[in-house]
Each structure stands twice: as structure tokens, then as C-alpha cells.
Write a structure and sequence with these properties.
single chain; alpha+beta; four-stranded antiparallel β-sheet; two-stranded antiparallel ribbon; 6 strands
Length: about 110
């Protein structure tokens, strides 16, 4: 499922493309994490190591409950529930993508 998620940088901003069944994952990744490696590291740490955790951002909320993660968009009320391992993999992919972007910017 998360293999269908696409990352891009447009005008210096992270853009995410997800299939409709994964919304509001795109807003969570774009608005709450963006290209900020420090925020990504915090979220990734909790998803990897904590059984229970909640993150309330500006537009989305993430609730980690055992083996599932639910992301809810505060304004639309839409939600998506993912397996913890799927979000871990997706966050790792985002980290690799951002690392590649930074390497290209420095060259």
C-alpha cells in the first residue's frame, strides 16, 4: 500500500502524492513533517519504539496504538489507519528521499 506513495520537492516544499484510500497521509507528511529532518526523526523514533503515542500537529493528529497508527485530518475529519510497520517503512523512505535531495543540493 505505501509503495504507492510518491515524494517530490516543489519550490523547496515537500509534496506527497497518495492514493485516495491513504488520505490524510499526504497532509500529515507535508504539513506536520515536511522537509524537517528533526521532526521526521522524532516521529520515526516514537513509531519504532513506543507502543502508545500521540502527536497533535497543526492540521493532523497521529495516534499510535500497538501495531496500528491512525492519522486523522483535523479539518476534514478523514482518517487512515496503517500498520505500524508500513508507517515505519514510509518514514524510512521519506528520510532516504530527503537525504538524497540534500546531497544533490550540495553538489
Amino acid at each position: 500500500m505505501t509503495a504507492q506513495v510518491r515524494f517530490a520537492i516543489h519550490d523547496g516544499e515537500l509534496r506527497i502524492r497518495v492514493p485516495p484510500e491513504l488520505e490524510p497521509l499526504d497532509d500529515f507528511l507535508e504539513s506536520e513533517i515536511g522537509a524537517d529532518r528533526a521532526v521526521l526523526d522524532i516521529v520515526e523514533h516514537h513509531v519504532r519504539h513506543d507502543r502508545q503515542w500521540e502527536f497533535a500537529g497543526d492540521s493532523c493528529e497521529l495516534v499510535l496504538d500497538g501495531d496500528t497508527v491512525t492519522i486523522t485530518h483535523d479539518y476534514t475529519g478523514t482518517a487512515v489507519t496503517l500498520a505500524r510497520r508500513d508507517l515505519r517503512d514510509l518514514l524510512a523512505d521519506l528520510g532516504a528521499f530527503l537525504g538524497g535531495v540534500r546531497r544533490r543540493e550540495k553538489s
